Amino acid sequence: MVDHGQKGADFLEEAQKKLKGSTGFLGSIFGGGSKVDEAIDLYVRAANSFKIAKKWNEAGNAFCEAAQLHLKQANKHDAGTLYVDASNCFKKVDPNLAVRCLERTIELYQDMGRFTTAAKHHISIAEIYESDLVDFEKTVLHYQTAADYYSGEESKASANRCLLKVAQYSALNGNFAKSAEIYEKVAHSCIESPLLKYSAKEHFFRAALCHLCIDFIDCSNALKNYEEAFPRFTDSRECKLITTLISKIEERDLDGFTAAVQDYDSISPLDSWFSNLLLRIKQSIDGDDDMK
After folding, report:
1. Domain residue ranges in the chain
2. Transmembrane segments in this chain: where (predicted)?
């Protein structure tokens, strides 16, 4: 049975010997460049052997060595590709190292003016902060940066997908005004598209809930704007629920509020984001009642 870990180590050793042979005066005369190319190939073969052996740190480091050699030859695209390969390995054992590799990749693609590709890697970093490192502030930062890059490249649909992530986490962190503004912006852009028009309803629904977390009067005014911009929203179950919730908040009717949410949820199940915001609103009603 092949020991892929040992095989990877052998490739590494061979790569290092190639590099030693490419340095100095004689190396520069007798094919130093080709020796570097051979070393790159050996580092990549070492990395792939380490991947098979599930030696993720070693694989990531070997890909980084190959990437650095490409940079010495001014091959930014190839270096960027290898840093992504390194990041995928490091992600399994050290997410922080994975982020660093992707940040290096982003720098290279920015230098090349490849902002759409850079945006894609910002999303990858955001996903690592979202799932592995659980740092929502940095999650939002990288989704926002990706959205900005996509917007600059006129990739509106991709920008909106990133903005919706920003809105999602902004609301969960209590920044309801920012979240509502984003949902409204995305909803209005959807209205302009025949294919996306129907999805505007959910974005307005989420925006309205964010407003409701701030103040029911604020929400009532926003709701009027949504109905003017998108008349089909008026007869939707989402709009009717928000209208009912506003009235229940005005009446301080906690039971009625709960019943309205349960009735909606029984037909259209609410995800954890909605549940989180609705719980906050309910607790604010309960808190107001306790102060009476």
Report:
1. 174-292
2. none
